[in-house]
Amino acid sequence: MPLTSKLPDVGVTIFTRMSQLAASCKAVNLSQGFPDFPCDPALLQGVTEAMQAGHNQYAPMTGLPALREAIASKLQQSLNVHVDAEREITVTAGATQALFSVIASVLHAGDEALILEPAYDSYAPAILAQGAGVIRVALRAPAFAVDWDEVERAVTPRTRLIIVNNPNNPATSVFGPADLDALAQLAERHDLLVLADEVYEHLVFDGRQHHSVLAHPVLRARSFAVYSFGKTFHATGWKVGYCVAPPALSAELRKLHQYLVFSVSTPMQHALAAYLQQPAHWQGLPDFYQARRERLAPGLTQAGFQLLPNAGTYFQLADYSAIRPDLGELDFAEWLTRSYGVASIPVSAFYADGRDQHLVRFCFAKQDSTLDEAIKRLAELR
């Protein structure tokens, strides 16, 4: 029987492609965004204790009450916002499931959603799978600041949703208060819902603060905010995240969520609920990752890369124009992997038009020894 694909233009992701190439070349993998250091043994012990205590059956659909209460307490401490744990927090199977569930819950065939590029690669396929259209507004290097007038001009009568990623992967830029004000004014004028991907909320550097939609009264009323314990606690394979939204929006999200995964790993939720009782477990993350950024950066510079500003996330963008200006981004990333044994991601993969800016992305969420080995190999470029 013939099958008509909903996503005919979607293939293997660039992350899978570059990680496979890195493995085959025995390269240092600074491409895909995952830590290569262990998560806290106390967190692992919490999972073990939860399993041994018999917490191995389905958790409540919306998430373990103790975990949702702990999340609410964390949001109060970190953002000074009150969130109703029962009606406004939904625990999900990672942030990607939350993102898809929100998009599928609010978009209908013929609607449009607006994204800012470079954009995380799951946004557009999730939109297209609903029969909706994607509006793309490009951010420009090196600052990747949002031109909110340009965004406004892109909105049409069919636009229902705007997706923002703050801090931004891969651009590494972060929103300031003025950005949230501009987003709020735009959303109010055009009656838009907002999906805020804030998975790198704690990875902001050089004394900056994370400015969340949850702390902005206007945006709070019309936003879904998505978070990831995998990103925060170095456990990406656990696939546990959560979505915060007003009661009416959460109720709609949960209608779909219950038929996608129903519930999320019970012992891991117990462990996370206990782990969140100590704010130090997330409050030290900016310094923890900034030290890794500063360990990698000089090596990249000495190898001939020009580094773009990095305000957040655990990625560093680098311009390779002084090294191989003759190569496009994908060709350069593959050449660097094969010839020098260090894998990166071409930034062109985050744009629908594949625009070439001679930029690649390196992940510095790695052990010191991993970063040092990458620096050693890249030194051969000069």
TrEMBL record:
Its cofactor is pyridoxal 5'-phosphate. CDD domains: AAT_like. Keywords: Aminotransferase, Pyridoxal phosphate, Transferase. Residues 28-378 form the Aminotransferase class I/classII large domain. Pfam families: Aminotran_1_2. InterPro entries: Aminotransferase_I/II_large, Kynurenine-oxoglutarate_AT, PyrdxlP-dep_Trfase, PyrdxlP-dep_Trfase_major, PyrdxlP-dep_Trfase_small. The keyword Transferase applies. It comes from the Bacteria. One of its GO terms (cellular component) is cytoplasm. Belongs to the class-I pyridoxal-phosphate-dependent aminotransferase family. This is Putative 8-amino-7-oxononanoate synthase.
